[in-house]
Amino acid sequence: MSPAGYLLDSHVLLWLDGENQRLARTQLLTRLPRSSVFVSAATAWELGINFALNQLSLRIPVSELAAAYGFNELLITFRHVETATALPFHHRDPFDRLLVAQALAEGLILVTSDKQLTRYGVPVLLV
Predict the structure, then answer these.
(1) Which of 52, 112, 105, 54 is CA-nearest to residue 77?
(2) Which are the contacts of 63, defined by CB distance < 8 A and separation ≥ 6?
(3) Does the pTM exceed 0.70?
(4) How confident is the model at residue 1 (pLDDT cuts 50, 70, 90)?
(5) Is residue 16 within 8 Å of 50, Cβ to Cβ?
(6) In sequence order, which residues have a C-beta less than 8 Å from that of residue 82 and are 6 or more positions away?
(7) pLDDT tens digits, residue range 49-98?
(8) Does domain 18-126 bear CATH number 3.40.50.1010?
(9) Fewer CB within a 10 Å sphere, N or C end of the chain?
(10) Local structure of 51: helix, strand or coil
(11) Residue 127 to residues 11, 22, 49, 56, 86: CA-CA distances in angstroms?
C-alpha cells in the first residue's frame, strides 16, 4: 500500500521558509508531490508558541506558508490525540508525539531529521 502522503515536522517547514540551502541538498521539493504534503495544525501551534516567546521569527504565519507551497492542512482529531497518548515515551516532546500519531493514523510518512522518531515504527523520511 502506498502512503497517502507526507507530514512535515516543524523544523522542515522552517527550513523551507528560511534555510533552503539545507533542503537543497535533499531536493525535498522535487522528491515530494506538493499536493500530497501535509502540515499539521500542531506545527502551527508549536511554532506560534515559540514565536510568542520570542524564540523564533516567522516571516509569515504557518497557514500562509503552507498555502504558498500548496501544502495541505492536517487538523488535530480525537483519534490523533488518543493515538498520541497511547504511544510509549520514546520521545517527550508532545508536538513530536502528536505528529507521530497523526502520521500513524493517516498513513503518512513523517519528514523529519529527528532519528528518535523512528523508534515508533512510523514511516520516516530522514532529511
Answers:
(1) 105
(2) 44, 73
(3) yes
(4) very low
(5) no
(6) none
(7) 999 999 988 888 999 999 988 999 999 999 999 999 999 999 889 999 99
(8) yes
(9) N
(10) helix
(11) 10, 9, 24, 21, 27
Adjacency order of strands within the sheet including 124-126: 72-74, 37-40, 5-8, 108-112, 124-126
Instruction: Give, rounded to a whole angstrom, the gap between the first and last alpha carbons of the chain.
Output: 23
Scan for cell 495544525, then name that residue. Answer: 41
**What beta strand segments (E) does 9-82 contain?**
37-40, 72-74
Cβ count within 10 A of residue 105:
16
The answer to whether the beta carbons of residues 51 and 14 sit under 8 Å apart is: no
Instruction: Using the structure block, give the residue that is written with the C-alpha cell 522535487.
Output: 30
Q: How far apart are CA 63 and CA 65, in angstroms?
A: 6
Length of the chain: 127
